[in-house]
Amino acid sequence: MTEKTDVWQGTLTLMVLKTLEAIGTMHGYGLARRIEQTSGDLLQLNYGTLYPALLKLEQEGYIRSRWGVSENNRRAKYYELTKAGQRRVHKAAAEWEKTTEILARFLAPAEEA
Amino acid sequence: MRRLRAVWMRLRGLFFGWQQDGEFAAELDSHLTMHTEDGIRAGLSPEAARRQALIQLGGAETTRQAYREQRTLPWLENLLRDVRYALRGFCRNPVFAITAIATLALGIGATTAVFSVVDRILFRSLPYAHDDRLVSVGLVQSLEKQEFTLGGFFYEWRDNQKPFTSMTFERGLNACNLTEANPVHLQCARVAQTFLPTFGISPELGRNFLPEEDLPNGPKVALISDGLWMSRFNRDPNVLNKTIDLDGHPVRIVGVLSKDFEMPRLQPTDIVLPATMDVAAQHTVNSGIGFPMWAFARLKPGVSIAEAKAEMEPLYRHTQQWIPAEFRKEFLLQIRSIRDRQMQDAYTAAWVLLGAVLAVLMISCANVASLFSARGAARARELAVRSALGASRGRLISQTLTEALVLSVAGAAAGCLLSEGLLRVFIAIAPTGIPFLATARLDLRIILFTVLVSRFCAGLCGIVPALERPRATALVARSTNAGTHVRLRRGLVATQIAISVVLLSSGNLLVKSFRNLEQQNLGMQTHNVITVQVSLNPARYRTGQAFMDFYHRAEASLRRLPGVTAVGMSDSLPPDDNSWHGGMRYADIFVAGKPRTPVGTGGPVISRLVTPDYFRALQIPIVEGRGFAEEDRNASGDFIVVSKKLAERLFPRGDAIGQHIQFANYNPYFVLDGPVFTVVGVAANVKNAGLAGEDEPELYQLRSNHHPESWNGHCIILIETALPVSVVASWVRSQIAQIDPIVPVEIDALTQSVNRLADRPRFETALLGFFALCGLLMAVIGLYGVIAFVAAQRTQEIGVRMALGATRMDILRLIAGEGVRLIVLGGVIGLGAALAAAQLLKSLLFHVGTHDPASFIAVILLLVVVTLAATLIPARAAMETDPMTALRVE
């Protein structure tokens, strides 16, 4: 079995936002699966941690939720981005890119320095 | 913004949480169902699929917990839980909660009420810009101790002074009338043009006077008070430049003063007019010393009052030339802050009250802390259990603090109500002499003060027990071991006892002093004497003759009333020295054939103009010679009666009768041109300088018929009668009405007006006595609580001791000894502090030494009796313990 990585602190929010941006609207379980898939099954996601994160985003007004029916005819709560959420995705993504870029410099081979 | 929104949502979550919880349960359920179905599709058994789903979720309960913590504010939720828990605890043990709340309410209520009273006297700033830089500048002398000045001095000071940025003056109040439709009687103040700028007052509307308006014969203008603007002009903004008719002259309104405007000497004022002083004339009018006025100045930054006085002293000495040489030395320069000038001796009383009430607050806080500590000891095991189950130290402390907070909030609320009530009582029973009392209110600042005090109490009450770490031993110990608790509480109780000793002894000293004041011999009778004062309008009674005729007719007709044994008249009455009375300097009395007394010595002598029956009505004994006789009034000579004290000084050889006396006149230089008086008698001394003052020498001049010019509005008719005032009053009114039907008549029993002089000490004594008793009560509750608690804690020990052969007396001694130690410790500390505190009371005491042994012994006795009772009750209960029961106590 391949070794899976834990979700880094603070990145789950970005993953959720980015996933929602990609697929529009989805329920919590679907989001969890989608995030795992997107990570190429490299990520060890504790599904339970998703819900407080969703709630926090909702409290901050970046996403909204409503009850709907799933493809298998199950009642499920669906989440989607709000306008503020869409803006937030871009901003957070840009910030993240900057962070990784900085980190990349530290990790770069020594001869480049 | 986002964060705020999130906090708001979470706050909502706190109160509508049950809704969201249900929703999340459904969401979780749907999650698990979908996951399980996926698992089954992948080929797992339903059980395995569900297990897999739960594992990946990380546990349903953990998820729910994490969700809940995100949904609400955990600390707030904890707080609410603690509050609920505390309330439940209080309901289970209402005696504890009620005692604590009552104690706190009393402490906070009394503190708030007293703070409301003294706030304005001690702390609140006056309604002037930088009021701490404002001073009152003037002269004082033995006959006038409130500094004043004269036009002849002021301008020279103003033009040459260095310590002040500006100097200004006011000329006092005059009655004035608004003589237009609906005439009103008003009070007009006259102030210099520099008055408002010096005080940093700007009018609410309009402007200050212009310099040219402050000149004699300048344009007539006025500033009106906010009250007059309201009552007369209904706050009409067009009031500016309106012309009003003041005493028959048109005067233009140029400004309106703000609502909080007050004159520096606190006179109630309706209209402020420019003083329009003729500066040049000040060295010629009023015997060359100028008109009287009251000067105020603003200190330059960095200049203290003492420095200002030192700098003004040479200037003052230079201006002394305007004072007649004879009494030049009697005048002194005085500079003091406006607050001092306004508050006079209310200061000491206010500090004493504040000190007393803070002491009560300390006792009540100590009491509540002690209650909490006892409760903490009783709950040591519970805390230990909670600690063992994982409650952090912080959680335990915050829970105890929450309990204290709940109590102190309840206490503060009850205290606010109590203080409102107390304040009303204070205002109702207070004498008029305490400045601003009648307008004292519980305002926002004071409520804030209460809240701070209650927070302080909560902190103290909460921290003390919480500081004690729950020990693991508390879990296993058969009985709770509360050694530190008890030591702490012993300290608190000893402190309470010490503070109550201070309060009680101070209260006792004041009570004793007050009793001395009330029961002293005034040297005259006050029972059976009724005073009648008639205000004669000088516009209708234009000459002394007219006044004399009126009073002679009144005297004659009152004498005809049944039950009236004497009718005397005087221009003033003892014992009040603050009401108007005549006076002179001892050095101005000249005895024929004797050398003149050195100038500037001897102090004041009170003089009264009386009719012969004055001595009869007040029953002042004549100890030598005779009093005035009725026929003296028409005789051509001028007669005088001196008090014993004056006679002893003027005629040390005891040969007063028949001597001749003359009084110095100054117009403006010393002359001896007045009538020659013959001493006909010596009267006993009368208390004449206030209830608490030392007797002053006094002389009585006969109001004789050949000096009609000596008659004026200063006349009090004294009626001696055994009948009650209510009966005589109506007869007096009808008699006076027959002479002049439209004069207002004031009738009062002399006992009443003398009684009023004692209002102030009565008020102070009553308050301090009340606080002292409150303090004692609370200290006793505290002591009782500790002893009872210790006894309960030691039940088992008592059982063992008794089983081993201790007698019941031994047990009593064991438990009571505990209390006695505390009483002795607290008593000794308190006694020391009380002796020190008595020094501070010195100026309030009358004929009581600050170390009055009887007072202190009485306090100690009272304390010992009461506290021993508080000790013996629980000690007796311990004594009665049945050893078998005691041993079985878990």
Word description of this protein:
The complex is a heterodimer of chains A (113) and B (890). In chain A, the strands form 2 sheets. In chain A, strands 2-5-4 form a 3-stranded antiparallel sheet. Chain A has a two-stranded parallel sheet with strand order 1-3. In chain A, 55% of the residues lie in helices and 19% in strands. Chain A contains 4 helices and 5 strands, in the order βαβαβαββα. In chain A, a hairpin with a 5-residue loop joins β4 and β5. Chain A has 113 residues and is α+β, with helices and mostly antiparallel strands. Chain A is globular. In chain A, α1 packs across α4. Chain B has 890 residues and is of the alpha+beta class. Helix content of chain B is 52%, strand content 16%. Chain B is built from 26 helices and 25 strands. In chain B, strands 1, 2, 3, 4, 5, 6, 7, 8, 9, 10 and 11 form an 11-stranded mixed sheet that branches. In chain B, strands 14, 15, 16, 17, 18, 19, 22 and 23 form an 8-stranded mixed sheet that branches. In chain B, α1 packs antiparallel against α2, α1 packs antiparallel against α3 and α16 packs across α24. The radius of gyration of chain B is 38 Å and the shape is globular. The two termini of chain B are 58 Å apart. About 1% of the residues of chain B have low confidence. At the A-B interface, α2, α3 and β5 of A face α1 and α3 of B.
